[in-house]
Write a structure and sequence with these properties.
- The protein is of the alpha/beta class.
- The chain is built from eight helices and nine strands.
- The strands form two sheets. A seven-stranded mixed β-sheet has the order 3-2-1-4-7-5-8, sandwiched between helices.
- Bound molecules: guanosine-5'-diphosphate and magnesium ion (MG).
Length: 237
């Protein structure tokens, strides 16, 4: 059976992580490992995850003490999964915006495609974030990134997605420019430049129920600037 790794970067998700891991485990997907990549969260997320990992061998925890950031946490998770010989690597957020019930749908589709994106912007998908302002930001960022990079997919900032491990192995993970959330689009762009088969499945993106977002205006501006730099450095499609 192919091994699946689900990478979950966390920073201060103590209110979510246990329920999330239990929901994932309940799906009973064969050969699935949930890997929590925690950046020494002050709220003790890492400790909670480690306690659960002791009870359940399908849960692993990577605790990072030196580096911080959603981008590099994801990369460290990918590298771990590649080293463990995963066939499929999924990444998802810990805050229930990405519902675990889609995991089996990703795994069905990844048999056919190289990269499967959970998409809010195709029929059947939805961005159920409550704040109008936040939805506006997402739409703006999406149009900007899509047109700048010439990507055909609709949800270019979706962080809920599934890779065939070959896709990640073909990308030079040590030399990506992003350290923050723009890593999502940077990796997507690299996969598109390498002509991998990318497919979108509809997801309903829920608003985070507990805890706080780490996104702020500064991070957003930096993200948009980074995307501009990818276009310069990697060239167009
Ligand atoms: N390891 C790690 N995870 C992070 C960091 N910042 C955010 N995350 C996680 O990345 C995911 C998305 O972050 P979130 O704050 O929900 O961003 P938003 O969904 O764009 O508002 C969540 O699971 C966060 O816990 C970080 O610095 N390190
Ligand atoms: Mg979130």
């Amino acid at each position: 059976m192919p091994k699946t790794y689900v990478i979950i970067p966390t920073y201060n998700e103590a209110e979510n992580i246990e329920a999330l891991l239990r929901e994932i485990i309940k799906l009973n997907v064969t050969d699935l490992t949930a890997l929590v990549v925690d950046d020494n969260s002050p709220d003790g997320t890492g400790g909670i995850a480690e306690k659960l990992a002791k009870e359940n061998s399908s849960i692993k925890v990577l605790r990072r003490f030196k580096n911080r950031g959603r981008g590099s946490a994801g990369i460290d998770g990918f590298k771990y999964a590649l080293k463990e010989g995963a066939s499929y690597i999924i990444e998802m957020d810990a805050d229930f915006s990405h519902r675990p019930k889609y995991l089996p749908v990703f795994l069905e589709n990844i048999k056919i495609y190289d990269l499967v994106l959970g998409s809010r912007f195709i029929p059947g998908g939805k961005d159920a974030e409550r704040s109008f302002f936040r939805r506006l930001i997402t739409s703006f960022a999406r149009l900007y990134i899509q047109s700048l990079l010439g990507l055909k997919v609709k949800d270019v900032t979706s962080g809920y997605r599934c890779f065939r491990s070959a896709v990640l192995a073909a990308i030079d993970l040590d030399h990506l420019i992003s350290t923050g959330p723009s890593i999502i689009s940077e990796i997507l762009y690299q996969a598109a430049l390498k002509n991998y088969k990318i497919h979108e499945i509809p997801i309903i993106f829920e608003d985070r129920k507990k805890g706080k977002t780490k996104l702020n205006l500064w991070i957003l501006l930096k993200t948009l600037y980074m995307v501009y730099r990818f276009r310069k450095i990697y060239g167009g499609i």
